[in-house]
Every structure is written in structure tokens, then in C-alpha cells.
Amino acid sequence: MKVKNKIILYFIIVTLIAFCLRIFLFNFKSNDFLIFLDNWLNFFKNNGGLKGIKYYYGDYNAPYVFILALLSYIPINNLYLIKAVSIIFDFLLALAGGYLSYNVSNNKKLGLVTYASLLFLPQVVANSALWGQCDSIYCFFSVMSLIFLLKEKYIKSFIFLGISFSFKLQFIFILPLYIYLYVTERKISFFHFFIIPLVECILCIPNIICGMFLENVIMIYVNQIIQYTEILVFNYPNIYQIINPNLYSKILKFNIFSFTIISKVGVVITYIIVVLILLYLLKINIKWTKEKIINMALLSIALVTYFLPCMHERYVFVGEILSIIYFILYKKNLLFCIVINLNAIITYTIYLGNLGSFVPDFLYIIMALIYGIVLIRFTINTLKFMNDKEIKKVRVWEKKKLCI
After folding, report:
1. pTM greater than 0.90
2. What is the CA radius of gyration of the chain?
3. Which runs of consecutive H residues, i.e. helices, occur in 107-194?
């Protein structure tokens, strides 16, 4: 059998198995589905579908609300409708990831390996087929944006970034990469960044036509930020598991940290880290390559989500995807790839299995410490890799050592 035919056959087999796996999990109902998604879909069914958008007051952004309203016309179980949309984007995401690998490596086998790896990544399966969440949607558009960024087709890249933003605010974690490229290389125009809100506005037009107030459209993300500022961290092993005031108040019987102060300081520290990396890239006069772009995208997501307060376990979804793609392409940073994905698997299991009350606080602290140490190592390795002069020094040292 020819290599091309083998790849097609494997592609079909992988696709069918991945689809059957998701169908097997279809009947699971998560708390998020029971409390939010099911109620909203019923709301649209009972209020004339698209006509119900006028009365919508939840915190899902306009394009996904429009999808829910359209789904309300289909006489199928709510659970299946919602999961079907997310699962479709699972496959689109895997295709995008596979294409990214193929585009960079020009190797169809690596593209197929990436496609299969992403389809069977436990948190990808759990996110859509179990949880009924839609993170694969914004992640797909983020990966598409990265694909066109690597091709230096910047307008298309920012259009896809804008679509990603229109579905989830979490697109912002990859945004530092685009800022770095703009400041250090100037191939990206300042006006390209205006494409992001422009696309968001365009995708909100159908909702406005259906009667949704412009103020409600604008305030959705604002309300999300306000709504999720009551707890420093949600089931995610970042630095706030280590310095969580609620934890120490239990031990010491009084609060030694102010939640508000920690939260504000965390935001400031995150900004400082982003700026320091930018200054470093300027100092070394970085010469960007495809590998460096993917590496920096991954580092940006990892650092921002580790130091920003109010993070959920699902917010690193794009980072987990990119860690798999990066390792398949370059066979580097295996430890980081394992840890970031293992964290996701553990936290998903805790949440979806309703095990939160049985999990001791120190487990999250240990996970956060391990992840922090691995992230420091990954950050150092990445910054060294960004510096071509540093790489040359290492190579010269290795040659001298070899001569000895």
C-alpha cells in the first residue's frame, strides 16, 4: 500500500475511533450543563429561538448565544445538541493542529500524529464530550490565527484572532506573542490590532438585529471579569494555590493576606513579566523563526495563566494544545508538556468527578509548586533559545569539550 493511501486509511480509522469514543460519553451531564447550558437552551426554545436573544442576560458572548438560539429550533435532546457543536470543533481543532505541524515540518506523518494526539488528549475529549464546554471553538480559531501568523499573512491571522476573542476572553493569553512580534519586528502593523475588536463587533451584529441591546453585548466580558473575582483561583494549580489567603486563614485562624491586594499585585506582576520579556527580546535583537513563534506563544500562555488571579483549569486549553504540537514538531520540553497536560487531566477529573470535597488542599499546593519549578525551567530554556548568540556560545563550548 502506498504511503499516501496508508495515511488516508489511518486518518479515517483515527477519526472513527475518536468519534465513537465521544458518542460513548454523550449521556454524561455535568453541573455546568444542568445549571447553565440546559436552562439557556430551554429558554430559547420557550421564547421563540432567535427572538429570545432580545431577553438574554447570561455571560456567554454573542456568537455562542446565537448558536444556542439556532440549536433551539432542532428537536433533539439539549445535551446532544450542545455537545455536538463542541465535538465538531474538536475535529476542526485537531485538523488545524495537524495542518500546523504539516505546514512547519512538511511531513504528513507528523501532521497525522498531531491530529490523532489532539483528538485523544484526555482533556479535549472531556471538555466537549463530558463537560459540554466549548473551549475547542476559541482554541480552533487561535490555532488558525497562529497558522496564518507563521505564513506571515497577518490580516487573516488577526481576523481569526478576532473570531477567537468573540467566543472567549481567554484568547488574551496568547496576545503577548503578537505584541512581541509587533514591537521587535514591525512586520505587524499597529492597525492590525484593531481587526480584533472589529471582528468582534461584526460577529455581534446578528444578535443586535435580533434585538439584543448594544450595552448588553459590550458588558458581557466586563460582567465575566467582575463575576469571577471572588476567588483567587478555581481548581487550577497556579501560584495562588500556594499563597491562597483562605487556606492560611484555616490554619492560622485569621487572615494574613488581603484578597484584594493579592489580586491587584498579581495583575501588576503579570504585566511586569510580560514587559520584562519584551525588553529582553529587544535587547537580544531577536530573529524570529517558526519554532520561536510557537515556543513564545506557549510560554506567554503558561506565564500569564500562572500569575494572573481568578484562573480556571480550562483557561490553559490553548497552551496544552500547543505543548503537544511543539513537542511533536521539535522533540523538546517533554517535561513541561507532561506536567501542563497532567495538571489538566487531574483537575478535570476532580471537577467532573465531583471530588473537590475529598481532595486535600496540599495536593493543589504540591501541583502548583511542581508546575512552578518546571515553568521556571521552561522559561529559562525558552529565553536562551530566543538568543541566537547564546545558542552559538553553547555550540562552541560543546565543540571545545568534544576536542578535549
Report:
1. yes
2. 22
3. 108-120, 122-125, 135-150, 154-167, 175-185
